[in-house]
Amino acid sequence: EIVLTQSPATLSLSPGERATLSCRASQSVSSYLAWYQQKPGQAPRLLIYDASNRATGVPARFSGSGSGTDFTLSISSLEPEDFAVYYCQQRSSWPLITFGQGTRLEIK
Amino acid sequence: EVQLVESGGGLVQPGGSLRLSCAASGFTFSSYEVNWVRQAPGKGLEWISYISSGGSTIYYADSVKGRFTISRDNAKNSLSLQMNTLRAEDTAVYYCANGYNYLHYWGQGTLVTVSS
Predict the structure, then answer these.
(1) Could you tell me which residues are beta bridge partners of residue B97?
(2) Nearest Cβ partner of B101 from A44, A94, A101?
């Protein structure tokens, strides 16, 4: 099973700041990685797929990068609605897709 | 607008059974693969099952294999998950989500609590 490790576990930032979230895979997943955002009491929302492609309706302040084992989700200037939990997910070992444990982005 | 609405969750005793449903609308359900993903309270996401658009290809996570059965009725735009021999560790919010290998749209989830 491919294990995804996200860091940091919690990130405390202020609105307007830049956020950088990391996801590391236990083996190469090529570019087959997605990012999801989950707010309290809500379902996850797909943000980025295939490492760097924004899903429909996702604001341009969200960007993804990386390949192989190291990936990054960046949020260029945090808006109040961006504070949430973010998960990465790999599809390299489909059908056994796996998720990272999540990074909580909280208001400082 | 794409909508996925889960139902059927509730409290069940260990060893019991429960059947979850997911009603789809706003897209051509019969053309899309669908998955079940669960999230234990305060925990992360765990994929548990996949079914192809026509229903002929099915996969399960090891944690539920042999106990859970996924099925779909394309005529009724619905997805089901029959859960048998439930354990305390199956306690979670269960989501249906469409997509082949990325999960594009999700329902709001239904809570399953396994406890005596």
Answers:
(1) B35, B106
(2) A94
> In the structure encoding, which two tokens stand for residue B102, read together?
């990325």
Minimal CA separation from A69 to chain B, in Å: 18
> Is pLDDT of A100 > 90?
yes
If you average pLDDT over every residue of chain A, what do you get?
97
Question: Quick one: tokens of A24?
Answer: 């590391």
CA angle A69, B38, B35 (to 5 degrees): 80
What's the CA gap between A70 and B46, in Å, rounded? 21
Reported as a single tens digit per residue, the pLDDT across B11-22 is: 999 999 999 999
Closest CA of chain B from A101, distance in Å: 5
3-state secondary structure of A69: coil
Radius of gyration for the alpha carbons in chain A, expressed in angstroms and rounded = 13
